[in-house]
Amino acid sequence: MTDSTTKVPSRDAVARQRRMHRRFAQRRLTKVFVAAAVVFTLAVLVTPEPPTRVVVPATSGTVLMSPAAAASNVASLPIQPLWRPAGEVLKRSKGVAALPLPFGLDAKERERGESLSRWHRIYSYSAKYRIKPDLARRIYDAATTAGIEPELAFRLVRVESVFNPRAVSPAGALGLTQLMLGTAREYEPNVTREQLLDPDVNLRIGFKYLRGLIRDYKGDLKLALLVYNRGPVAVQKSISMGRDPANGYESRITKGYRGRGVLE
Predict the structure, then answer these.
(1) Is the pTM of this model over 0.85?
(2) Fewer beta carbons under 10 A from the terminal one: N or C of the chain?
(3) Average pLDDT, stretch 86-112?
(4) Residues catalogued as catalytic
């Protein structure tokens, strides 16, 4: 014989059903609000304004002109809906210039967008090279100020000092970009050894030096990096003797890098 008793749903099943009904009701309510907003928007757009007359001060040859007649001599923008489907691009009629936003909001929005883009790139480099955002900001800003592509700048600092601002080599090279004091004084004669251990000072001079080398060697990035690492005398000596000046340093920095090294 079969059991004719009715199976009682569990508490979890009942709770799931209630959640489903609640979500369905929320979706219906959302659709109602959206439809109401669309209807209200269309009503506002199509409602004509009461006719008025424009009174022009009486001068020789002037007449009273209605708004319709005055508008006929002025190019007007096409009416655009306040609500539109996602992905639809508003089109502007040819020959009609874009109206500037009041109070300079266009410039503020542009500046805000550039700032957000800058911080996005800084945080991306911070995550990629596993360094603090503050150090990533210093490297990024110093590179762009000197005209060096940020990707090359981060690669250089990683190879030279492993992002250690207090790094000192056995040969006496200092800081993030491992500058020799004599080389740094060619750009800033009064700079001291202790100042070269300051990240901002070191990055400013180091990237300026690298930018000058890329310019001096006509955009030959690998040769400029070799001179940065070995010095111009050693590289020139190897070339004059018919030897390849490469020592692997430039390959460590440029492996997988497709840039030109400098910003336009």
Answers:
(1) no
(2) N
(3) 55
(4) 160
